[in-house]
Amino acid sequence: MSAKTALTKKDEAIINHLVKADIPKNMAKTLAVLADGEETISVRIEGITALRQPEVSIVMQDLRKRKWVKKRDIKKEGKGRPVHAYQLAVPFKKIVSMIENEERKKIKEIETNIDQLKKLVK
């Protein structure tokens, strides 16, 4: 279980670069917390990122759809809902590579669009 309690300067830099790559800020914050590969419970993610529980849940749904994060339920003693623990399902470097591929595809589309536009105005 992760011992992280606050975002570091490195985390802030990761967040800024992810946001520049069109990753939503809440998702970027969550990915920065999970980047070390350690399992982290949702309450800790909320505390570190200053996100509310519904925001973390929405981000986690999206990350799970992308198959970037896996979820584990930890049963509490007695009654109550289980605690949700999250961990990257793929290494953070692979996620960065996936984002890179998406960004390069956008660059290619922009270049193609500009080339087509230039041909039209000859």
Can you give a write-up of this model?
The chain is mainly alpha-helical. The protein is built from five helices and three strands. Strand 2 and strand 3 form a beta hairpin. The longest helix is centred in the last third of the chain and has 29 residues, at 92-120. The protein is elongated and about 75 Å long. The mean pLDDT is 94.
Short synopsis of the structure:
By secondary structure, the protein is mainly alpha-helical. Helix content is 59%, strand content 11%.
Write the layout of secondary structure elements.
Elements: H1 9-20, H2 25-34, E1 40-41, H3 42-49, H4 53-65, E2 69-74, E3 83-88, H5 92-120
Antiparallel strand pairs: 1-3, 2-3
Order of helices and strands: HHEHHEEH
Find the count of extended strands (DSSP E, 2+ residues). 3
Report the end-to-end length measured between terminal Cα atoms: 61 Å
CATH superfamily of the domain at 9-90: Winged helix-like DNA-binding domain superfamily/Winged helix DNA-binding domain
Please tell me the overall pLDDT.
94
- Report the major sheet: 3 strands, antiparallel
Low-confidence runs: none
CATH architecture of the domain at 9-90: Orthogonal Bundle
The class by helix and strand makeup works out as mainly alpha
Text of the CATH class of the domain at 9-90: Mainly Alpha
Radius of gyration from the alpha-carbon trace, in angstroms: 18 Å
